[in-house]
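Q: My labmate handed me this sequence with no annotations at all. I'd like to see what the chain might look like in three dimensions before we decide whether it's worth expressing. Could you predict it?
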Amino acid sequence: MEVLYKSTRSGQEPVSASIAILKGLTEDGGLFVPDHIPALDKSLKELSVMSYQEIAYEVMKLYLTDFTEEELKSCIARAYDKKFDTDIIAPRTEAEGVFFLELFHGATIAFKDMALSILPHLLTASAKKNHIQNEIVILTATSGDTGKAALAGFAGVEGTRIVVFYPKNGVSPIQEKQMVTQKGDNTFVVGIHGNFDDAQTGVKKIFSDRRLAAEMAKQGFQFSSANSINIGRLVPQIVYYVYAYARLLAEGKIKEGQRINVVVPTGNFGNILAAFYARNMGLPIGRLVCASNENKVLYDFFRTGVYDRNREFVLTSSPSMDILISSNLERLIYHMAGDDPEQNARLMAALSGQGRYEITEQMRAGLQDFYGGYATEAETADTIRRIYGSCGYVIDTHTAVAASVYGKYARETGDRTPAIIASTASPFKFTRSVMNAIDHKYDSMTDFELVDELSRIANVAVPAAIEEIRSAPVLHDNICEVDEMPDMVKRFLKL
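A: Here is what I predict for the chain of 495 residues:
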């Protein structure tokens, strides 16, 4: 059955998957959502004998229904290849009785690779399918990981250019070095004086600038997005939850149909929303545990039904989660409102105007499968130190937030359902925070001395993504104010 994509904010005509991928954002400022969530058409037992690539096809074919089998399988084959440092693509480690799903074995050692490895191929296939002649300009805001993963995915891809904005003082040194050393004539990286929410809001304003769009069209350009607001990012993320369940079943860790809980460190809400979609496709997921850091806007929302971004923005050791406006939550709100775009639009207008909104009791009732929790900076560090001390396994700060929150959830509820924690980044991306959590004696080391020491104590080879930036020259030294972001885009495109 064909799946079409609607706006979360209006009743505009639904579009095909390929058009939704090309546009990124709807014309009314909303997000594309499927007109229905399709059910898995293979049994869990059938899925349990499949490779990651095979499961990717079985899941994605249900959403991207205007892609041919040949087109979709070609995109999958080119995405999930030797760029990943393990044939398994998404391996799993068991520590302290919990399964850590390692989503960081791609080219930039963060979970964003899982979707951004395939998005360029989906996008170029969509352009060809719809006879698009314009050059596609990918416009992206990043809190640290999306930027590099998108740059790596789109660098050198014919018919595309990519512009990435990041908070100049809001990412880790390794994250910044990864971005500013990016090669490729079609890449452009800009640090802004502001936080991630400022960058994300600036990007959305550029998308809705009709005059700029017309100016670009005259020169043969059109915008699209690599952020998780793009449905082409969200659909591939559903795959790894299905794959994780299939592997647990194949290895006898669970029985067919047995429920699992999923724990996700959450900033922009795309990763946990993918788990929500997987659950609604028929995957036996019990609770969806949403883990926040000290920017606990989502924790407060799940506890009170009030989303309020009017609070101090905290810079933490888990910077990819330092977000007060969780864009993908809009998709969940739309579904909780009974797929009512008018009700959702009113709530989003309140968020834009007053910085807050409150959902109805009926909508709150639909959130019973979610559990919101948060971890302080001290709890995050304690979790890294404890897990390393108990079994020698080193996790990054974002994964530690999730592990800490899961511990609180298990103690509070007594729920002993098997749990998968989404391990979203390699500890090598956040070496200083990770090593200081283990022992403050490392504080005097340089960033790359810490990399080597982490490799030694964890008995893990330094990832290629880190080795290649040790001595790489800075190629992007652009910095601007938030209101100068459109001018930076024009400069890059020579408009």
